């Protein structure tokens, strides 16, 4: 190890953690809001449960994809980091 | 590796993570709000489900595009960074 | 590479990421609000769907343009940066 | 390049990005609010759509002008920066 | 260029950008609020559209003047900066 | 130029920009709130438009005076700064 | 000029700007709230316009006095600063 | 002037400005709230205007006293500062 | 004056200002809330004005005592500071 | 005085001020809320004034005790500080 | 006194003050909320005063215990600090 | 004492205080909310007091356990700190 | 002890405290919200107490698990820290 | 141990704690919101308990997965850190 690789390693570690922890805040709040609204809609209009459930799942998939973006970047920085690969090469 | 390339690598790593993690907050909250309103609208007016669903999908696509901008910048900084390419050239 | 070009490269990288990630927060929230209001308006007054949809699309275009400003500045800083071009010239 | 021109270039890069990204937050939220209110007003009073649409467009133009101020300053700092011109002269 | 002029140039660049970007937040939100209220007032009382529109325009002009103050200071710092003129004299 | 005058110039530039940009936030929000309330009051009680308009203008003048205080201090710091005059004397 | 007088000058410049810009936020918001409530009260009870207007003006005077305190301190720091007078004596 | 007196002068200048500018935020908001509630109470119950006005003035006096505390400390730090008097003695 | 007494003087000056300015925020907001509620209660139930006024004054006294604590600490730090007395002894 | 006692004195001064100023924010807001609710309860149910007043006073005593904790710690740090006593021993 | 004991003393002083001042914010707000709700409940349902008062006191005791935890830690750090005892041993 | 043990002692002191003071904010607010809701529920439905009280106590126990976690960590850091034991061994 | 083990010990101490204190904020607020809603639901629909209580306990268990994750990480950092074990090996 | 491995260890420790503690805030608030809405929906529409419970569990699983992402990254950084493995190899 030398100073250069250590600096890159530290930056990768810190960034990967920050990325996923900040990145799930928005999607988490949105999924909670969607699920909560779905539940109160179901209580208000039980007959429309099919349409509500389907729209809920499509929406959750869209929102989850945003968290996946962050998770992918976080994983890339830990396991497939091109800068780290160049440094230890 | 030398100081110059290390500095650029660190800046690229940190920025790519920050960009996507902050960039999904707004779109995530907006998609959650849209989905939640769609669900309560469906419960209130089941007959308009076709119009509601179509408008919801168009809106989600518009909002998702904003997160895509951030993801694209994040990917460019990791895999197609012109400054890094110039540095290691 | 020398200290001067490295500094400009780092500033460009960091600024391009920050610009787009902060710049989409406002437009994203606004588009979400517009879409959500459109959905509840459609549920409330299905007969006015033509006017509502048209106004929604004009509004989304106006709001999207604000995010485009940030994306343009971010792309300029990465791919057409006059300071960088001067530095490596 | 020397220290003086590098410092000015870095300040210009960072400021141009910050200016446009922070500067669109307020206009974006305001346009979203205006569009959302227009949509709910249209649903509530479809007969007044002409007046509502005209007032909306005048208002959006006023608000967009505030974002244009920031975009103009950002473009000046990148492409017509008098301090940079003096420095490289 | 020397250290003194560079310092003044950097301060002018950064301050001009910050001034206009922060300075439009308040006016933007206020104009959005005014326009939104005007729209809902028009939907509620279409007969008073003349009075409402006139009051709206007077109010927008007052609020826009606050953003103009910031734009003027920002332009002075870039193009008519007395400290810069003294420095390069 | 020497270190002392440069320091005073930088402080004056930065402070003048910060003063006006922060100083318009409060007045802007207040004017927006006043105008918005005036508009909804006009829609609710069109017969009282004379009293409402007069009170609105008096109130806007009071609030605008607060922004003028900040603009005056900002202009003094740029064009009639006693500390700068003493420094360059 | 020497280091001591420069330091005092810089502190006076920065403090005078910060004092007035932060000091008007509270009074501005309060005056806006008072004016807005007066307008809606006038719309609701036009017969009490004399009492409402008089109470409004007394209240605005009390609130304006708080902003005047800040303006006085800001002016003292620029034009009648005892520490500066001692320093240049 | 020497380093010690300069340091005390700078601390006094900065603290006096910060004290009054932060110290008026709370009282300003409270007075605005009190005046606004008084106005809507007057519109709602014009017959009780004597009691309302008297209670309002007592309350404003209590709240204004809190701002006076801050103004007194600010004036003491500028014109009757025991530490400064000891330093220049 | 020496370094030690100067440091204690600066700490005392800054702390006394901060203490009173931050310390009045809470009591000010609370007194404003109490006065506002008293006013609307008087408008709603004029017959209970004796009980309301008495309870209001007791409550204001309790809340004012919290601000007095901060004022006392602030005055002790300026005029009866045991650490300063020890330092100049 | 030496460096050690000065450092402890400065820490005691700053902490005592911060402790009481931050420590009264919560109790102040709570007492204001309690008093405000008591006033509106009295206006709503004048017959229960005995129970309401008694419960209010018990509650205020509990909340005031929290501020007393902070005041006690602040006074201990100024007048009965064991670390300071050890330092000057 | 030496550097080590001074550092531990300063850390203990600052931490004890911060702990109690931040630690009472949450319990204070909660007690205020509980007392306020109890008062409005008493006004709404005077017959249930026994149950309400008893539940209130149990709740206040639970919440007060949280503030006691902070007070205990604060007192331990001042009067029974094991690290300080080890340092001066 | 040497530098290493002093550093660990300082970190333990500061962390133990921060942990408990920040850690009680959430539980305190939650217990206050639970108690307040219980009180208003009792006033609304006195007949269900048994079920409400029992559910309240179970809920308070769950929430209190979260504060206990923080208190335990705080106590471990003061009285059973393995890093400190290793350092003074 | 040497510099390396001390640094790791300090990082472990600070992180373990921060982790649990920040980590309980979200779960605490959520449990408080759940318990409060359960109480008001019980008051509104006493007949559904079985279903409500069961759903509440399942929900509290899910939320508590999130706090347990933080507690586990905190305990690992204090008592089973692999980095510390490697350092003192 | 040397400087490089120590730096990586410290970064891993701090990041793992921050990641899980910040990462549970969003999911915790969302699960609390979902559970609370489920409870009030059950009280409002007991007949739909099957659909509500099933939708609640699916939603909680989606939200919990976001917290799991953070927990996984935190565990990887402690027990399967590729940068640490490379450093101690």
From TrEMBL, chains A, B, C, D, E, F, G, H, I, J, K, L, M, N:
Cited InterPro entries: Alt_ATP_synth_F0_Csu, ATP_synth_F0_csu, ATPase_proteolipid_c-like_dom, F/V-ATP_Csub_sf
Transmembrane segments: 7-29, 56-80
Keywords (A to Z) from UniProt: Membrane, Transmembrane, Transmembrane helix
Compartment(s): Membrane
Pfam assignment, any one: ATP-synt_C
Topology of the protein relative to the lipid bilayer: Multi-pass membrane protein
Major localization listed first in the record, in broad terms: membrane
Domain V-ATPase proteolipid subunit C-like: 16-77
Keyword field contains Ribonucleoprotein: no
UniProt family annotation: Belongs to the ATPase C chain family.
NCBIfam families given in the database record: alt_F1F0_F0_C, PRK13468.1
Protein name listed in UniProt: F0F1 ATP synthase subunit C
Species per Swiss-Prot/TrEMBL record: Methanosarcina baikalica
Phylogenetic classification of the source organism: Archaea, Methanobacteriati, Methanobacteriota, Stenosarchaea group, Methanomicrobia
């Amino acid at each position: 190890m030398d100073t250069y690789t250590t600096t890159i390693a530290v930056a990768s570690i810190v960034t990967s953690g920050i990325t996923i922890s900040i990145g799930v805040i928005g999607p988490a709040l949105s999924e909670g809001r969607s699920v909560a609204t779905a539940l109160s809609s179901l209580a208000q209009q039980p007959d429309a449960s099919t349409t509500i459930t389907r729209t809920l799942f499509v929406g959750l998939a869209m929102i989850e994809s945003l968290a996946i973006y962050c998770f992918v970047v976080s994983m890339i920085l830990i396991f497939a980091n091109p800068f780290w690969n160049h440094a230890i090469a």
